[in-house]
Amino acid sequence: MARVKRGVTAHRRHKKTLKLTKGHRGTKHALYRRARESLLHALAYAYAHRKERKGDMRRLWIVRVGAAAREHGLSYSRLMHGLSLAGVALDRKALADLAVADPAAFGVLASKAQAQLAAA
To answer: In this structure, are residues 41 and 48 in contact, taking their beta carbons and an 8 Å threshold?
Structure first.
């Protein structure tokens, strides 16, 4: 049976890890053991923060919609309640986009919400 030398495989794996940790501080991008630890933490943070980003974006949209609602004399919660009473099924992302890109259209929605709140 032929002798198997494993240096090439290990070297390739080390190079791959070191390449992925490029840009990390200190020895975390130069020494394999430190780089491997750093890579494992980085991948865990990336996974967790992909999930967190969804909540961050939702909070941003709520702040934007709330600020635009205040310009029309409504609180965020009153606006959302008025829109649901009016049967407007726009999500927070679309409302925030309207508030930033097309304030006139947002004003129309806000007036609909106010009318529904007054009627209820």
So the answer is: no
Sequence-distant (6+) residues with CB within 8 A of 61 are 92, 93, 95, 96
CATH number for 67: 1.10.1900.20
Whether residue 1 is contained in a domain is answered as no
CA 32 to chain centre: 32
* Residue pLDDT tens, the chain, 120 long: 888 888 898 999 999 999 999 999 999 999 999 999 999 999 999 999 999 999 999 999 999 999 999 999 999 999 999 999 999 999 999 999 999 999 999 999 999 999 999 997
